[in-house]
Specification:
- This protein is 39% helix and 15% strand.
- The protein has twelve helices and 15 strands.
- The strands form four sheets. The chain has a seven-stranded mixed sheet, sandwiched between helices. Strands 11-12-15-14 form a four-stranded antiparallel sheet. It has a two-stranded parallel sheet with strand order 1-13.
- Strand 5, helix 6 and strand 6 form a beta-alpha-beta unit.
- The mean pLDDT is 97.
- Bound molecules: pyridoxal-5'-phosphate.
- The site of pyridoxal-5'-phosphate has 13 residues, from helix 4.
Length: 395
């Protein structure tokens, strides 16, 4: 018996444990001080009433002989797939319900989709990056090409014609930088992928935070994307499902490689490896796409958007360079006076009791930056932003 040898190639997940260790050590030394936790990528607002009603309906249905459901189709129920297709139609994107796969979230899919591709492939990861893109590629034994970004391109790296890749991870709006590709920029990526016959794995986990009209919510708003892209979506940040777990992945019928339909292969994978998502959850998820669900989830997102407005105002007043905030629940800030990410982490923790995420944890080009998360209570966000500004004015 041989273990997967590629686990040995993974970096120690030292980064987040180090953040925790430094925070815990500070808290132990200063038990009376309140910490402002602006490093967490998890929602704070509860599920909205429409979703709760949907979940309750699911529970009730399971309680009577007439409405009870046993095993469901592994790829998702017709009612939820149709609700999502109708939602995409409102954005001018035509999808067949069969192209939509109901999932337990984006995290599971980022790893599972590797099933479709040989390990003998090169994966392009734009950096700074959500760590799962790198780690799942390593576990799958794939070569990784890192495409760094920085201030000069606004942390929106564009394709490099000579760079050859088979799989491309794109995340827009981006975690950690909050930067989001415009339609014109995404069109360049789609053309590049089609020319190279590569497949884009497009992570749209934060699409619900987009406010700019030239930023697409779905890669399928771009001509030609149906021939090169898989979209990974999640209700985690859209509707507060981080602890409830439901998402969806779109694999278009037109996506063909080596004469094979990737959608058909994905049906084969799912029907073999899962028994699908619970009926109750799918009723809760369906409610997100009703008019009441849309209005209520937008109201929750508006709370985080207001936090972003407060923080952007503080950063403008401090005169710091940043990206994100407008289309994402993250703001990515350049450390003042050439400080390193960890020096900034320590400074904010010890002098203002604010916890942020050091940018270097998302790839080498994140050094010199830090991420602020907007997932917090408004009173916390505004108090933290005020403390931050006061501290910056003393530097
Ligand atoms: N993709 C990105 C970019 C994320 O930031 C996250 C979670 O923070 C995920 C995927 C995972 O989301 P889910 O909760 O749907 O697994």
């Amino acid at each position: 018996m041989k273990l997967n040898p590629y686990f040995a190639d993974l970096d120690e997940s030292y980064f987040f444990s180090e953040m925790r260790a430094r925070t815990d050590a500070y808290a132990a030394m200063h038990p009376d001080e309140h910490l402002y936790r602006m490093g967490i990528g998890d929602v704070t607002q509860p599920l909205c009433p429409a979703v709760i009603q949907g979940l309750m309906r699911g529970v009730r249905d399971q309680s009577t002989m007439e409405t009870f459901h046993g095993y469901l189709f592994e790829c998702g129920t017709d009612f939820l797939r149709s609700a999502i297709a109708e939602h995409y139609a409102t954005r001018g994107v035509t999808l067949f319900p069969e192209e939509i796969f109901i999932t337990s979230g984006a995290g599971d899919e980022i790893g599972a989709l590797g099933d479709l591709f040989s390990s003998d492939n090169t994966v392009l990861v734009t950096e700074p990056a959500y760590p799962a893109y790198v780690d799942t590629s390593i576990m799958g034994g794939r070569r990784i090409v890192h495409l760094p970004s920085g201030k000069a391109d606004g942390f929106l790296p564009m394709p490099v014609p000579d760079l050859k890749a088979d799989l491309i991870f794109l995340c827009s709006p981006n975690n950690p930088t909050g930067a989001a590709y415009t339609k014109a920029q995404l069109k360049e990526w789609v053309d590049y992928a089609n020319t190279q016959e590569a497949v884009i794995l497009f992570d749209a986990a934060y699409e619900a935070f987009i406010t700019d009209s030239d930023v697409p919510h779905s890669i399928f708003e771009i001509d030609g994307a149906e021939r090169c892209a898989i979209e990974i979506c999640s209700l985690s940040k859209t509707a507060g499902f981080t602890g409830t777990r439901c998402g969806y992945t779109i694999v278009p019928n037109a996506l063909i490689r080596n004469g094979q339909s990737l959608r058909a292969l994905w049906v084969r994978s799912r029907t073999t490896k899962t028994n699908g998502i619970s009926y109750i959850l799918q009723r809760g998820a369906e409610a997100v796409f009703t008019p009441a669900g849309q209005a209520q989830t937008k109201a929750s997102i508006a709370v985080y958007q207001e936090n972003a407005r407060i923080w952007m105002d503080a950063l403008d007043r401090a005169g710091l360079w940043y990206t994100g905030g407008r289309n994402a629940p993250y703001i990515w800030v350049a450390c003042p006076n050439g400080r390193s990410s960890w020096a900034m982490f320590d400074l904010l923790l010890t002098k203002a009791q604010i916890i942020v995420t050091p940018g270097v944890g998302f790839g080498a080009c994140g050094e010199g930056f830090f991420r602020i998360s907007m997932f917090s209570e408004p009173s916390e966000a505004s108090a933290a932003a005020e403390r931050f500004l006061s501290l910056m004015q003393t530097l």
